[in-house]
Each structure stands twice: as structure tokens, then as C-alpha cells.
Specification:
CATH topology of the largest domain: Rossmann fold
CATH superfamily of the largest domain: NAD(P)-binding Rossmann-like Domain
Helix content: 40-55%
Strand order of the largest sheet: 3-2-1-4-5-6-9
Bound molecules: NADP nicotinamide-adenine-dinucleotide phosphate
Number of domains: 2
Number of helices: 13
Structural class: alpha/beta
Oligomer: single chain
Distance between the termini: 42 Å
CATH architecture of the largest domain: 3-Layer(aba) Sandwich
Strand content: 15-25%
CATH class of the largest domain: Alpha Beta
Number of strands: 11
């Protein structure tokens, strides 16, 4: 492959997996990061552009010559503006495919959630910037692939790990036998890497929903208990208790905490076709826990 892939968000849970898969296949990769030392230590073969969302000048210069872009933005409030601006620069410099980390929350009723709305506005900003680029440059349309994952398994690392480890309990608002959808960061990173290496025409403007497995809290504590080497209990808590935990204990902003009280309630079917895209079954919660068991022991 002679193409060059520019990666925004390549040092996080999803991006790292995507970058590693591309490097394993000898794809030329450039990471946009605030922490070049972190990238050099982890991916010595990768090219680096140092920069931040606040000033996209280094990105504008660095993205020239790249044919594809992986776009993951962590700033949820300013996401639509940042994604629109980066996508405009990418289209203007001849990038032929954008693979964007969006969210399944886009499919929830219009403006019913903060997370759904910010990801939806971001998808629209990317589409709008592409239309402007085509109108002005008369260039070949850039393919835009949106990945729409459900709730990340990695949320266990930052929301639930402390209570599981210190108190031996998982606390959540769902009934013990209520099904909820989950996705592994490895599946998201792998699918991004697959799309970025396959023909651009194959995926076109695809939207890929990503729910890898559905689990009840009772099933989650059974799996957590196995890796922790002790029994983990489940306590169903009220939405007020969860809200207080997210805001007071974790410092989460109000609008995000409101969403996390039950963001994907009722969205509980595995995405048809995900195993076709991945060329394997999506990762199970047990498999994901095996990679992260140290956190829960
Ligand atoms: N959690 C969920 O259930 C869920 C569900 C659906 C979608 N999502 C999406 O997933 C995203 C999070 O993905 P993740 O877990 O892989 O993230 P993560 O592990 O927190 O990694 C964040 C990445 O963003 C980069 N970054 C952060 N601030 C930056 C800045 N100011 N300038 C430049 N780069 C910056 C970091 O790069 P450096 O530190 O190297 O600069 C890092 O590579 C969310 O933003 C959301 O869109 C989440």
C-alpha cells in the first residue's frame, strides 16, 4: 500500500489499536498528538505531527500528502466545530477517505441526548465541509465512513473500576437481567484499520453501527468475578444515586451525566454484519476483560 494515513486520536484506547494494526501491515502512519514522546515510545515507526485542537496550523501543514484520515475527537463540546474544520482541511489537501469515530447515540431521537446531538452535528459538519470542497475544487469526492459504536467496554475502566476493586460491587441503574449493548475498543480500532486499508469505493459513504455483544448486569458481574478471582456483587441504584456519583465523585459535567443515566436503554441487539466487516466474531466481554484483568484484581 502506497497510501499515507493521518491519525487524529491515535494514542487513546481505540486509536492505539488502529495504529498498531496499520503498522503491522506496513502502512505509513502519521499521528497528530500533544505528546510526541508518548508516540515515539509506543510507535517508533510512526511519523508525528505535534499539535492540539486549539490551533490546527500544524495539522494543516502535516496532513498534506496523506490520502486517508482517521478522525477521533475527545472534546465532546467543541466536536462539531473541530471535526468540520479538520475535515475541510483534509478535503482541501486531497485526502480521499475519512473514517470518523461517531456514536450510535446519533440514531436516538433528534436532540434527545447531548452525546447524540454533538455526534450528529459532527457528522453533518463533515458532510458540509466535503460538499464545499467539491464545489470549490471540483475534485473527486472524499469517501466518508462513520463508525457508530454503542457503549464502550472501556467505560468499566474509568467509571466502574474503583468500586469493583475496592468494594467488590458493580452499581448501575439497569435491572439485573436487563440487556444492554457493548463494544470492545479492539473491535472499533480493528474495523477502522480494515476500512482504511481496503478500496475507498468499497466502503463509499458507509455508516457502520457497532454493537458487539449484549449483556445483563448479572452476566457482567459473573465475568468480572472470574477475572477478579472473587465474587463481585450487583447493586441496582436509582438514577439520582448514579447522577450524584458521576457528577460529585467523578466530576462529570451535568449534560454528560444526564446521558449516562441510561443512554442506550432498550438498544440491545448485536449489529448485523459486524462479524462480516471484522472477518471474525466481535470480541466478547470475557475476551476484553482478559486484556484488562490487572485493573480489576
Ligand atoms: N465511551 C463511550 O461509550 C463512547 C461511545 C460512542 C462513542 N464514543 C467516542 O469515543 C471517543 C473517545 O475515544 P477513546 O476512548 O479512544 O479516547 P481516549 O482514550 O480518551 O483518547 C483520546 C485521544 O484524543 C487525543 N486528544 C485529546 N485531547 C486532545 C487535544 N486537545 N488535541 C489533540 N488531541 C487530543 C489524545 O491524544 P494525545 O493525548 O496524544 O494528544 C488521544 O489520542 C469520544 O470522544 C466519543 O466521541 C465514546
Amino acid at each position: 500500500m502506497t497510501e499515507k494515513v493521518f491519525i487524529v486520536g491515535g494514542t487513546g484506547h481505540i486509536g492505539e489499536r488502529c495504529v498498531q494494526q496499520l503498522l503491522n501491515n506496513n502502512v505509513h502512519v502519521t499521528l497528530y498528538t500533544r505528546s510526541p514522546a508518548k508516540v515515539q515510545a509506543k510507535f517508533p515507526q510512526a511519523a508525528i505531527v505535534e499539535g492540539d485542537y486549539n490551533d490546527l496550523t500544524p495539522l494543516e501543514k502535516g496532513i498534506a500528502g496523506h490520502t486517508r484520515l482517521f478522525l477521533l475527537i475527545a472534546d465532546l463540546v467543541n466536536m462539531p466545530h473541530i471535526k468540520g474544520a479538520i475535515s475541510a482541511k483534509a478535503c482541501a489537501t486531497g485526502v480521499k477517505q475519512i473514517v470518523d469515530l461517531s456514536s450510535l447515540a446519533v440514531t436516538l431521537p433528534w436532540r434527545s441526548t447531548f452525546l447524540g446531538n454533538t455526534h450528529r452535528l459532527s457528522e453533518e459538519a463533515i458532510l458540509a465541509s466535503r460538499s464545499s470542497a467539491v464545489a470549490t475544487a471540483d475534485s473527486i469526492t472524499t469517501g466518508y465512513v462513520a463508525l457508530r459504536p454503542t457503549m464502550f467496554m472501556t467505560n468499566h475502566l474509568w467509571i466502574d473500576a474503583q468500586t469493583i476493586k475496592n468494594e467488590g460491587v458493580l452499581r448501575h441503574t439497569a435491572d439485573p437481567d436487563e440487556l444492554e449493548g457493548w463494544i470492545s475498543n479492539n473491535d472499533i480500532g480493528d474495523l477502522a484499520a480494515i476500512v482504511l486499508q481496503e478500496p475507498i469505493e468499497k466502503h463509499g459513504d458507509a455508516v457502520y453501527e457497532m454493537t458487539g455483544c449484549v449483556l445483563t448486569p448479572a452476566q457482567r458481574i459473573a465475568a468480572l468475578g472470574k477475572v477478579a478471582g472473587r465474587e463481585i456483587g450487583y447493586t441496582k441504584i436509582s438514577t439520582k444515586e448514579k447522577y450524584d456519583f458521576l457528577t460529585t465523585k467523578m466530576g462529570m459535567p451535568h449534560i454528560m451525566a444526564m446521558d449516562l443515566l441510561g443512554l442506550f436503554k432498550g438498544v440491545n441487539t448485536v449489529s448485523v454484519g459486524l462479524s462480516v466487516l471484522l472477518g471474525r466474531e466481535p470480541e466478547s466481554f470475557e475476551q476484553w476483560l482478559e486484556h484488562n484483568k490487572d485493573v480489576f484484581q
